[in-house]
Structures are given as C-alpha cells and as structure tokens.
Design a protein that fits this description.
alpha/beta; 8-stranded mixed sheet; two-stranded parallel ribbon; 14% strand; 43% helix
Length: 323
C-alpha cells in the first residue's frame, strides 16, 4: 500500500494570511507534514515559504510588521497597471528564497493565479517560486499583472480562493483546507486610521512624502483618499478590501460546496481587517488554535480513509479517485 498523501489548500485573505503560519505550526506539532501544498494569494506566499523551508523566517518577518514597515514596502506608482509596483516585495522574497525553482522543492507545490485575458484558472507548478507567488497575489488595482509563460496573470482569489481542487488533482487522499473568511460576513473592514497617521507623520521618510507632494496634492489628502477618514466615509483601499472580502466569502462557499475538503480549518479572524498586517501575533495564535481544534477531525478522517483503503486495496492512491 502506498503512503496516503495529505494535501493542504491555503486560502486567500490578504493580511489574515498570517494565520496560515499558525495553522502550519499546529499541524507540524501534531506530526502532520503535508505532501501536497496549494495556495492562493497570501496562501501561496505562506505555503510557498513553508515548502521552501523558510517558515521561521516568514514568521519572524510577520511578527516584526507595523504600519510604517508596510509603507516602506509599498513602492507607489501613479502610472501603470497598479498602484504598487511590487519590486520591493519581490526583492524581499528574492533575498530570502533566492532563485528557488518550484520543481526543486521537497513538497509538491502549486500557486494559483488567474489569467487576465480569459479568466482561466492558472496552476503554476514550475519555474521561479518568487514569480509564482507574485502572480498569485497580484491583486487588480494594487499590483501590476505578472507575465508568466506568455500570459498576464493576476490574483488567484478571483477564481479559486481555496484551491482544494488542486490538491485533489495532484493525488491527495486527504485534503485539509484553510478558510480565512468563514466569520467575516457582516463585519466592517473599515480601517481604524493608523495607516493615515503613518503616511503623513513628520519623522517618516520613505519617499512617499516627496512623491505625493510633487503631484500637487497634500499627503493628508492622498492618505484620506486611500484609507478614508476616521469614522467617516471609506477610502479607495477600504472599498477595494471590502469588495474583496465579499467576493472571497461568496466564491469560497461556492467552490467548497462543489469540491469540499475532508477537513476544514477556519481560524476566527473575520474581525481583523484585510490590511492589518501588524496583527500577526493574534493571527498566528488564532491559526494555531484552529489547527488544534481540527486535530480530532483529521484523525477521524484518516481512520475512515485508511479503513476504506484496507477494503479496496487495488485503489491507486497516487491518483484522485474516479467515481
């Protein structure tokens, strides 16, 4: 009998994706090391970092995050196909991951993106790990599309926010899905305003002040347009993140209904805004707690699947079941 392959699908969720780190830590402590990893958007970033053996470095980076650090990685562009160039984030990933190729990883890994021209789902299974992750989180309007094998790719959350189907297709017998949007319905994603204070603070020098002043508009006005006013109307980012939140929730429900995971891990992170990257300690803790809660369900699923495989010993466990 072949070893039962375990797959894990890391869902999209922008800043909430730090919870994936906690989920991995919780599963690894319990002795579960997935064979197949699929990820969409921030799920591709965390899943890819884990597959590359860089989880501890990623956790250290996440825990060091604060509003000002986020701004330092946002290379603002007032022209082009996205507000953020993405080169600083790409350089950061390259510094830690290097020129690692997906096919050289110890785990089977797939990053999910969306083909801009057709809307088709794109599974990136080879080539540069950094490029694959960048394409998977290329949120329209914020990041520029990524050119990959002759196609322009954007955020995979537009088509498959929780890529269970990828794990199934690659032969996972047990699939664990991590959904970061189960408790987000009805909760506001309006930011609390500390990003605005960071943008126009006197002691902050990231190049934003000069670039924004050069456009003929004050930093404060630009900040308000991006992030909104405290207790007043939402800004561009708030509207985009709120819309993304709705889309992820609705599409996740639809995809999981048609292709359910064997075990669903759902950290309680809906109260955290999609752009609150500085909430990593809480998010990681919630991820670990959710993984611990799911352990009995994983054990039960493994027991049932093993029992079935003992009865049907001619099943090729390296391939998804064809029914």
């Amino acid at each position: 009998m072949a070893k039962m392959k375990i797959g894990i699908a890391f869902g999209s969720g922008v800043a909430r994706g730090w919870a994936h780190i906690g989920v991995i830590k919780g599963l690894m402590k319990a002795g579960y090391n997935p064979d197949i990893i699929s990820g969409t958007s921030i799920g591709a970033l965390v899943g890819g970092g884990f597959a590359a053996g860089k989880l501890s470095e990623l956790e250290e980076f996440a825990l060091s995050f604060h509003g000002r650090k986020l701004i330092n990685f946002m290379d603002l562009r007032l022209g082009g196909a996205g507000l953020i160039g993405g080169k600083r984030l790409t350089k950061l990933m390259t510094d830690h991951i290097g020129d690692t190729k997906i096919e050289d990883l110890n785990h089977t890994f797939v990053a999910v993106a969306t083909e801009l021209a057709t809307g088709h789902e794109a599974w990136i299974r080879k080539g540069s790990l950094v490029d694959a992750i960048s394409a998977s989180y290329a949120l329209p309007g914020l990041f520029e599309p990524v050119r990959h094998e002759g196609r322009w790719l954007i955020d995979g959350a537009l088509v498959n926010p929780i890529p269970v189907s990828v794990c199934r297709a690659l032969g996972a017998r047990l699939v664990i899905a991590v959904n970061l949007n189960t408790d987000a319905v009805g909760k506001s994603n309006h930011h609390d305003g500390h990003m605005i204070e960071t943008l126009y603070s006197e002691d902050h020098d990231s190049g934003w002040r000069k670039r924004l002043v050069d456009t003929g508009r004050t930093e404060r006005a630009i900040a308000r347009q991006f992030f909104g006013k405290k207790k007043e109307s939402p800004g561009i980012v708030n509207v985009m993140m709120g819309s993304l939140n709705i889309m992820q929730d609705r599409l996740s429900r639809s995809r999981l209904a048609t292709d359910p995971a064997d075990v669903l891990i759902a950290p309680h992170v809906g109260h955290i805004s999609l752009i609150d990257f500085d909430k990593a300690p809480e998010l990681i803790a919630q991820g670990e707690a959710a993984a611990a809660h799911a352990l009995p369900f994983i054990e039960d699923a493994l027991s049932r699947l093993n029992g079935h495989d003992d009865e049907v010993d001619d099943t090729n466990l390296d391939q998804p079941l064809a029914i």
